[in-house]
Design a protein that fits this description.
Blueprint (H helix, E strand, L loop, with lengths): L21 H22 L1 H8 L1 H4 L1 H32 L3 H31 L1 H4 L7 H30 L3 H25 L4 H26 L12 H9 L2 H14 L2 H9 L1 H25 L3 H9 L3 H28 L1 H8 L8 H8 L2 H4 L3 H9 L4 H24 L4 H27 L8 H24 L5 H22 L2 H23 L1
């Protein structure tokens, strides 16, 4: 077959115009998808612990960790497919588009086959790798097997899922995610109630929901990109090489992130056992949901960063970066401060009185996020300016350091599981308080300290909310969800009022204009 060259110049303006009303659909789908994720991350956890027990529950997030380890093998291809495929489609280069599509699909199929063979010894010797209670070996092996199978199904069909990205139909992408999460949630509730109250039901739900998502991605591709089909002759090694080379630093960055964020449960499971693993995993859910919320919000900052950079508007880019960090951090300061300040009644009401002892762990896992999530917009800046090599290398090195420090504190101190949490908080904050804002300033050609005023505003706001909530918790008994929600609402209204008082006048005008715009759009949609 003829070799097809792929240009590495990705600064192509895609002319695809989304359908009328798709902005509203995107927003609704995003909110619904996020709501389902919060339900799976927070609301369903007490139910799972009651049905499965704390030891069994801890194996569910641990399985997800291993799935994310496997995903590293495919990231080098899949993180670049959408970009190059969109460019080829924009240029009406259908032969090139089919080559990219087929090369990615067959590469993913090959990766899934190789990883499947490597997973067999992991399943067979799982008791040597993971700690679980006596008599649960079959359940643990079944859960991990189903987790791996669900990943392979998603991997093979992931190429079809790129179609929504290429056509700017994020509402349909979110619809697939909603379908997968909805099927999974429904099956978990049904199977645990009427089939088996053990990990076998969780494994079945993982595989079936992955299958439904795969079918949805396939039909989505046929609907949006009917000219792209799987054909035996469309495979090009040069295309594969380009996909790999353009994503190498992204892969290294993600590997470092996994060593930061996806190694703690493995260490706790092996060093402290399944009960400690389950307790840590349950409390960790609040931190996970906050990160997920931060990622969902910060992703909208990417296009404006890319637009301003492409227009060479350096000063506007700096001001936009500062405002996004400041207000993004100030928005998240409220939930972070409330979760930490009300940690004891929150855990008591959420999981039961026996979990109140973990309130300090919840604070340790969450409080540092006022810095580590606030800098998310700077990651979008790095990507927009194609300055990802040094951040990837730093993240990788610091990730290794985090793993070593966590292992050291877990095995050579009396800190227990708190040592693992402390290691993550220290290493992640060192990177995102010192390197990330300074690097962001330098690539913009600005003084190294330019972003610290905005970061300190977030730290001060989080600390203030935390102190008020902590004092309230100590003075008044919060014995019901009504009391907790009422206290949180009062503090939230006070927080908003203080922010509005200290907000610069030009930002007040901007917020009023944006609020008026979205209010008009909402009224127009209601009339329709």
């Amino acid at each position: 077959m003829e070799k097809i060259e792929i240009s590495t110049n990705v600064s192509v303006s895609l002319s695809y115009i989304p359908p009328k009303g798709s902005l509203s659909l995107n927003l609704i789908a995003n909110l619904f998808n996020l709501s389902l994720s919060i339900i799976l991350g927070i609301v369903i956890v007490p139910y799972l612990i009651r049905k499965l027990g704390i030891e069994s529950y801890g194996l569910i997030p641990l399985t997800n960790y291993f799935i994310q380890y496997l995903s590293l093998a495919s990231l080098a291809i899949n993180s670049a497919v959408g970009r190059y495929l969109a460019i080829a489609l924009e240029r009406n280069e259908h032969l090139k588009a089919n080559s990219i599509f087929n090369t990615a699909f067959k590469a993913n199929l090959a990766i899934a086959t190789v990883l499947g063979l490597l997973c067999i010894p992991i399943i067979v010797y799982l008791d040597k790798i993971v700690s679980f209670p006596p008599g649960m070996q079959f359940q643990a092996q079944y859960l991990f097997s189903c987790g791996f199978i669900s990943f392979f199904i998603g991997l093979v069909f992931s190429t079809f899922g790129v179609s929504g990205w290429c056509r700017n139909r994020f509402d349909l992408i979110n619809a697939v995610n909603i379908l997968r999460q909805g099927v999974y949630l429904s099956l978990v509730l049904f199977l645990l109630s009427y089939y088996r109250s053990d990990l076998v039901s969780i494994g079945n739900a993982l595989v079936i929901s992955a299958f439904f998502a795969a079918l949805a991605n396939y039909f989505l591709s046929r609907f949006l990109l009917p000219n792209l089909k799987i054909r035996s002759g469309y495979f090009d090694w040069s295309v594969l090489k380009t996909l790999f080379s353009s994503s190498s630093w992204i892969t290294i960055n993600l590997l470092g992130s996994i060593l930061y964020l996806r190694i703690d449960l493995v260490i706790i499971n092996k060093v402290f056992g399944p009960i400690a693993n389950g307790e840590y995993a349950s409390v960790l859910q609040w931190s996970t949901v906050l990160r997920m919320l931060g990622s969902a919000i910060s992703s909208v900052f990417g296009p404006p960063f890319a637009f301003l950079y492409a227009k060479n508007q350096g000063e506007e880019l700096l001001q936009y970066a500062r405002k996004t960090i400041r207000y993004f951090g100030l928005i998240l300061a409220l939930p972070i401060g409330l979760i930490c300040g009300f940690s004891k009644p929150l855990l008591t009401l959420w999981l039961g009185p026996e979990f109140a002892k973990l309130s300090s762990l919840l604070i340790l896992l969450t409080i540092h996020l006022c810095i580590n999530i606030a800098v998310y917009p700077l990651f979008e800046l790095q990507t927009s300016m194609l300055k990802v090599k040094l951040p990837g290398l730093v993240t990788f090195i610091m990730g290794i350091a985090n793993f070593l420090l966590a292992l050291l504190l877990a095995t050579h101190t009396n800190l227990g599981i708190y040592g693992v949490a402390l290691a993550g908080a220290i290493m992640l904050t060192l990177k995102n308080f010192f390197f990330t804002p300074i690097y962001g300033a330098l690539i913009l050609g600005k003084p190294w300290y330019i972003f610290y005023k905005d970061l300190f505003a977030t730290i001060i706001a989080t600390t203030g909310v935390f102190i008020i909530a902590k004092v309230w918790q100590d003075l008044l008994l919060l014995s019901s969800w009504v009391n907790l929600v009422t206290a949180s609402s009062v503090i939230g209204l006070l927080y908003i009022a203080v922010l509005w008082i200290f907000m610069p006048s030009d930002d007040k005008i901007l917020f009023q204009e944006k609020f008026s715009y979205f209010a008009k759009r909402a009224r127009a949609n209601v009339r329709k």
